Amino acid sequence: MNLSRPLLLASNSPRRKELLTGLGLDYSVRVKEVHEEFPQHLKRAEIAEYLASHKADAYKSDIENEVVITADTIVCLGNKVLNKPQSHHEAAEMLRALSGTCHEVITGVCLLSKEGKTVFHDITKVYFKELTLAEIDFYINHYKPFDKAGAYGIQEWIGMIGIERIEGSYFNVVGLPVQKLYTYLVQLGYLIVD
Q1: Which of 55, 64, 63 lies closest to 12 in space, CA to CA?
Q2: Which domain covers residue 22, as residue numbers?
Q3: Are 53 and 111 in contact (CB under 8 A)?
Q4: pTM assigned to the model
Q5: At 163, is the secondary structure helix, strand, or coil?
Q6: Could you read off the pLDDT tens digit of each residue along the chain, which spans 194 residues?
Q7: Catalytic residue positions?
Q8: CATH number of the domain that 110 lies in?
C-alpha cells in the first residue's frame, strides 16, 4: 500500500492514532484548537459531520499536498446528544441514562485536500445491560471518562462488563470508522493498494 500524498491526522486522540497506525499508514499529527459548537437545528449525523468539517476548515489555508483527516464522535440517545461529561455527577447521569438501553454512536469524518473535502459518517448501535450504581461509580472513579462522549470508552472496563452487543463497526465506537475511511482513501486515489 502506498499513499499518493502525505496524511495529516488533526486529532490528539490516542485511540484515533492507534486505529490509523493499525491500518498500516504513515501519517503526521497536527492539532489546532477549534471550538466544538454547532448550530442548534442540526440533528444526530448532521452534527457529527458538521463538527468534522468545521475542524477541517481550520487547516484550509495551511495545506499544500497533504490530506487532512478530522473526526468527531457523538453519542445519541434518541435525539439527545450526550457530550463529554464535565463532572462525576454528569458522567453518572449519562451512564444511568444509557443503562439497559440501545443508543447510537455516530462518527463524522472529513478528508480535506487542496481539491476539496469529502465528509461522511458511520453509525453503530450499542446495547448496554442494566448497570448497577456500584458499577457506574467504580468505572468513573477508576477510568475518569471525562474526555469521552457519552462518558464511556467501549474498549475499557465498562465496555467489557456492560455492553451486550453492537450493530455496526466496533472501531467507529472507539472513534474512527476505519473500514469506511480506508474505502474513501482508496476511492479518492489517496491510497494505492498494489
Answers
A1: 55
A2: 2-192
A3: no
A4: 0.94
A5: strand
A6: 899 999 999 999 999 999 999 999 999 999 998 888 899 999 999 999 999 999 999 999 999 999 999 999 999 999 899 989 999 999 999 999 999 999 999 999 999 999 999 999 999 999 999 999 999 999 999 999 999 999 999 999 999 999 999 999 999 999 999 999 999 999 999 999 98
A7: 72
A8: 3.90.950.10
Q: The cell 459548537 sits on which residue? A: 37
Residues 6+ apart with CB under 8 A from 14: none
* Pairing state between β 28-29 and 67-77: unpaired
Single out the residue of 78, 70, 71 nearest to residue 43, CA to CA: 78
The tally of domains found in the chain comes to: 1
For residue 159, the one-letter residue type is G
Cα of first residue to Cα of last residue in the chain, in angstroms, is: 6
